[in-house]
Design goal:
Layout: H1 2-31, E1 36-38, E2 49-51, E3 95-101, E4 118-124, E5 179-185, E6 198-204, E7 225-230, E8 236-240, E9 249-254, E10 263-269, E11 272-277, E12 285-292
Parallel strand pairs: 1-2, 3-4, 5-6
Antiparallel strand pairs: 7-12, 8-11, 9-12, 10-11
């Protein structure tokens, strides 16, 4: 009897220990899920890292493929350690990537190409909001936003107009023989065709009420303006300027007070302008000039 009773107690202790160990293991898994699991060929488990050795594809047919809602700093965060890898690659026959901030009516591209053929669209429904903001951490040689193509960049504005600006660098970049930057102000009309071989072109839809160009601060025309000196005993001076033809417009004025002396004419010719006074001057006389066109 003693041997049989001890044997039953021994088996009961083994079973109790096994059940307790299983319960402890289950509790450990529930309380602290593992940080990584192999997901290739299996189900993806939320709340932890899933490792895979091949691409994961989600085909939702005609429905939305994936919806993510989050109250954290990021709804979706991607990292790519391959250089030059791509963090997000989106392809679409409509809008490839749409970023929306705030509320308001979604109006793709403001009477532009509609909802089709847009690689990246940014929309802000808040006053003072920004649709797309490109910024770099390094100044000099680093570009916040770069566009290339037949039109490297297009800016369309309504009440405040189209604004292209920079701190110390140009607001847009482009290559000749096209237009480097075309700024257009319009309520609805598309801008006119951009001229070739032009660094900056400004246009408006109503030339009677709108300004194509306003400048606050200094204006400098490096090789299309300057000063010249007419020496004593002479009444004319010539300045050689590359690209000038007889069709250019030139204006000159005296910078030295000479009683009875004025600028009689400024004649444009191939590669030069000649400033004529009405008479010979008695001393060195300064004239300033500007060439347009």
């Amino acid at each position: 009897m003693t041997t049989e009773s001890a044997s039953r107690r021994s088996r009961r202790a083994v079973l109790t220990s096994a059940v307790g160990g299983a319960a402890a293991l289950a509790a450990a898994r529930l309380g602290a899920p593992p940080s990584s699991t192999a997901a290739t060929g299996g189900n993806m488990i939320i709340g932890q890292t899933n490792n895979a050795t091949s691409q994961t594809t989600l085909d939702a047919g005609g429905a939305n493929a994936l919806y993510v809602a989050s109250a954290g700093d990021w709804s979706i965060l991607t990292t790519n350690t391959h250089y030059p890898g791509v963090g997000v690659n989106a392809q679409s026959s409509g809008i490839a990537v749409q970023g929306r901030e705030g509320n308001g009516q979604f109006d793709p591209y403001l009477n532009g190409p509609g909802t089709a053929h847009i690689a990246l669209y940014g929309f802000s429904g808040n006053t003072g909001g920004i649709g797309v903001h490109g910024q770099t951490a390094v100044n000099g040689g680093t570009i916040g936003v770069f566009g290339s193509g037949d039109q490297g960049g297009k800016f369309v504005g309504t009440a405040a107009g189209a604004v292209a600006w920079g701190y110390d660098d140009p607001g847009g970049l482009g290559d000749a023989p096209g237009t480097g930057l075309h700024a257009h102000v319009s309520t609805s009309a598309d801008p006119p065709a951009s001229p070739t071989g032009t660094a900056i072109f400004a246009s408006v839809d109503n030339r009677a009420t709108r300004y194509g160009l306003q400048v606050q601060g200094k204006v400098r025309l490096i090789d299309r303006s300057g000063r010249a000196t007419i020496t004593a005993g002479h009444y004319a001076v010539t300045r050689y300027i590359s690209g000038v033809t007889s069709s250019n417009i030139a204006v000159a004025t005296l910078n030295t007070l000479r009683t009875g002396i004025w600028v009689r004419a400024v004649v444009c010719a191939t590669g030069k302008i000649t400033i004529y006074l009405n008479a010979k001057v008695s001393g060195a006389t300064s004239v300033s000039w500007i060439v347009l066109g």
